[in-house]
């Protein structure tokens, strides 16, 4: 179940990743969008595995 704090953190993370990727002028716009999406998927996957590990520990 999501919360307002989680949503805020997600929006801030997305903005930070987008800003970092877009400041690198060597990437085309389409590639920067793909890289941003890939990084978000990685962080979502990593967080789900972390949560799964925490639930097993309890």
Entry summary:
Helices cover 83% and strands 0% of the residues. It has two helices and no strands.
Can you characterise this structure?
By secondary structure, the protein is mostly helical. The protein has one domain (4-57). Helix content is 83%, strand content 0%. The chain contains two helices and no strands. Helix 1 (4-22) packs antiparallel against helix 2 (29-57). The longest helix is centred in the C-terminal third of the chain and has 29 residues, at 29-57. The radius of gyration is 14 Å and the shape is elongated.
List the SSEs and their pairings.
Blueprint: H1 4-22, H2 29-57
Helix pairs in contact: 1-2
The averaged pLDDT comes out at 83
User: Poorly predicted ranges (pLDDT <50, ≥5 residues)?
Assistant: none
N-to-C CA distance: 19 Å
Mind summarizing the main beta sheet? none
Instruction: Tell me the strand percentage band.
Output: under 5%
* Class from helix and strand fractions: mainly alpha
Number of domains: 1
Which percent bin holds the helix content?
over 70%
Identify the overall geometry.
elongated
Strand segment count:
0
**Count of helix runs:** 2
Q: What is the CA-atom radius of gyration, in angstroms? A: 14 Å
Q: How do the SSEs run, as a string of H and E?
A: HH
């Amino acid at each position: 179940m999501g919360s307002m704090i989680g949503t805020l953190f997600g929006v801030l993370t997305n903005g930070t990743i987008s800003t970092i990727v877009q400041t690198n002028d060597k990437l085309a716009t389409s590639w920067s969008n793909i890289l941003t999406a890939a990084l978000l998927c990685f962080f979502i996957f990593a967080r789900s595995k972390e949560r799964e590990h925490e639930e097993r520990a309890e």
